């Protein structure tokens, strides 16, 4: 992959932390446009992580987590960083230009109460379905694109399942002690 | 096409909406396309998916890492070895585990056999959609030989439970490699029969050549990966370009084809099967002795970190983002599904195709709904 | 579309209105000949949903050959089928369509729940979007366990449906029918 420092220089307002390019939520579109102008990238993944509280993002990461395992190919591990309640939205771009191809992670930290970010569907067409999935499952608003409905869940589904505070409606219909246990531990 | 009936004849046509799926011959799964048709020609198409959304990513947050490994097979169930492989690579990155060499070779062998089986399903299903049942039986019979081999090693035919965090969980039985070599010969011979029967067939060529051409830049724009990308002329295969496991030790060519129409996407998978066979012979010849599994704690608590593992699965780039919070259960698992991005091109390319060309187009893209919907 | 969940008192299917105009022993005789013929040509409707669909396809292919029993004619249209093999996970999005397809099948019709997911939700039972077993929506005659069941197990399951057809009074099919 091209040197991340050079890429960060091409993107206005980006900073590199632990091999990840962090950008402001409001300048995601300009960042991805700048990367697209450099050429040779493919946006192949958009994903979000829900961190509802600072406690859920532990700050003590042992040093071993940051080293590269012997047979590693695409990217090393990213140790957890202390952060307040937020949504972490990651865009992954595969660098198809240089010889040792790898991918770049561009990350934006979104507010937890009202997560919203401008849509990049106008920049990369692959973002179209990827953003719809992230809204569907995580509830992150993508502004600046036309209205869209549910893509993976049924049309009248209420809620965004992958959020940590989501309680499955089925639990009322089929109460089960194992579900209560799982909910207490933070899954389901 | 449209000069048989003209407006001068006074005939008005009306567009209508046709739901293709979700219940239709079960080759691709519960995929629905909402087509607006003008007679036989598709005016616009919309993907309607989610009929198999099982909430795997949420399930992962409630069970341990090892317990989730069998669930990963069920994503892309036609090539059930790829997802656990990517998952285990992600876990090994999190835990900084070194996989023994023999285990890597075994993973490559099982993975490549699974790729052959998956491509055979695609070839058979594509011609089955055209109404050709005989080649489908040929290909599925060849696939049975591969599944027999996989069953001998892993214990199950379709949804294998073989990859574990740190290696694989079973070694090859005695006498497996000679049997596998013989089976490879037989599969390739059956594939040649299939090739002779189908690839030059006038009807097949007429129905696939020049249909739904996807150019290289378009494919990159839409995030298409895998055989569909290579059929558009781009030489991009993670096994060669960003080698994981022990792929850098083998000598194999990345196949590409120039045009990017349905025929090229079909032909590329056929060529890839032959290339897989070449790779497999090398792997089976040079497999070292040794451990098949690294020592990983039974109650495994990785460091609080995040890992991303991307492999070249049978359908494209399969990626796993695993976020751990230091406990025995994953904090967040995100799966980058190759088929999910591949279907993004359908609404763009469908207008102007006839209905039968649309069927051939989605067959050539080779998506699997378990992969799309997770 | 409202889906009412089936309980234990669900109406039986397969034991439909009489198909002949004859009464009594003549009707029974004709009906049993018709049942014998139906049992030897059970046409499944293609309802493959997930992984079990692949095993269902291989059951129809050359090695496991459903055709030797007369079952290989998978009809995409439910109006021409008499057996619905629910092969795979039923999600809440898919459930109304499953019921629609079931309703469109003409009597006598049978349902075979193939695999763990169709029987009880399987490994995904506690997911927020999975129906816990297709028998909450349609009455099921035969359950074939497995994840996925081998093609031989599926064939055994369909043969049990055939056994049900041969003897309408059977409440439960014996193991080696």
Provide an overview of this structure:
The complex is a heterotrimer of chains A (188), B (374) and C (177). Chain A is of the alpha/beta class. Chain A is built from five helices and eight strands, in the order αββαβββββαβαα. Chain A has one domain (4-55, 82-184): 2-Layer Sandwich (Beta Polymerase, domain 2). The longest helix of chain A has 12 residues, at 127-138. Chain A starts with a helix and ends with a helix. With 374 residues, chain B is α+β, with helices and mostly antiparallel strands. Chain B has one domain (57-373): Cytochrome-c3 Hydrogenase, chain B, CATH 1.10.645. In chain B, strands 1-2-3 form a three-stranded antiparallel beta sheet. In chain B, strands 6-7-8 form a three-stranded antiparallel beta sheet. Chain B has a two-stranded antiparallel ribbon with strand order 4-5. In chain B, a hairpin with a 2-residue loop joins strand 4 (163-164) and strand 5 (167-168). In chain B, helix 2 (65-73) packs antiparallel against helix 3, helix 4 runs antiparallel to helix 5 and helix 6 (176-198) runs antiparallel to helix 11 (262-286). The longest helix of chain B is centred in the N-terminal third of the chain and has 29 residues, at 101-129. Chain B is globular. Chain C is an alpha/beta fold. Chain C is globular, with a radius of gyration of 16 Å. Chain C starts with 23 loop residues before the first helix and ends in an 11-residue tail after the last helix. Residues 1-12 of chain C have low confidence and may be disordered. The chains are: A alpha/beta (188), B alpha+beta (374), C alpha/beta (177). Chains in contact: A-B, A-C, B-C. Chains A and B meet through strand 3, strand 4, strand 5 and helix 3 of A and helix 1, helix 3, strand 6, strand 7 and strand 8 of B. Strand 4 (78-79) of chain A pairs antiparallel with strand 6 (305-313) of chain B.
